[in-house]
Amino acid sequence: MNDWTTSHDRVLAQRDAEGWMFLIEAARDLRTTGAITPSGKALARALTDPVRAQASHPLAVLEAGAGTGSVTRALIPQLSRGSRLDIVEANPRFAARLRHLVTTHPRLAARPAQVNVYETYVEQLDTDQRYDVIVSGLPLTNFTPVQVERIMARYLELLHPGGTLTYFAYLGTHKARALTASRAEVRRHAAVDEIMATYQRAFATGRWTVWANLPPAYVWHLQRPLVSADRPEPQSVEARR
Question: Domains, the chain, ranges and CATH?
Fold first, then answer.
């Protein structure tokens, strides 16, 4: 057995462990877990592209709803010296796993960066820090419209003017719920979709379709205006695929 085989086996074992952990947490509360599998490599790369594009200089980055850390592991190698990564995760079991990831990740030992894990909801994050990039892994379509409005308002508050919010939404969830969910659930989902469409019209700089994920997903990039706005206002958006 060579070093590559050992390393490969460890990666596979880690993925299996994360998959089972997601299934267990989804069984506990699918609304806050939001998925039954961790984000795949292609989705993680699309979500972290704004960090990668600015990796030549120190950045302040916030990851919200980090889960077991599949996107976190894509973020850490992109952090230049002097960067800051704040990770927010409300699930205590996920948060414990993220703390272990941060304390054992070899890249953080070789290239020091300030990384913190906060076990809380992003709306309740107590910080004066403002961020260049926010990477959201929160299952927004599983929340109530009021919760989504609070989360999105908090994201814009936490971003530097000109900063980027990146988040994903699974393809086909609206149609799936229309076939299987109650009328109240369908109305809730439609209301959340409309809230997000308002933010997309006002702030989106691009949308990408990630087919190589289970399930496939859209990734949206939204940019906070350089001049602060009280609420989203419609503007022209060119969607990219």
Answer: 3-223 (3.40.50.150)
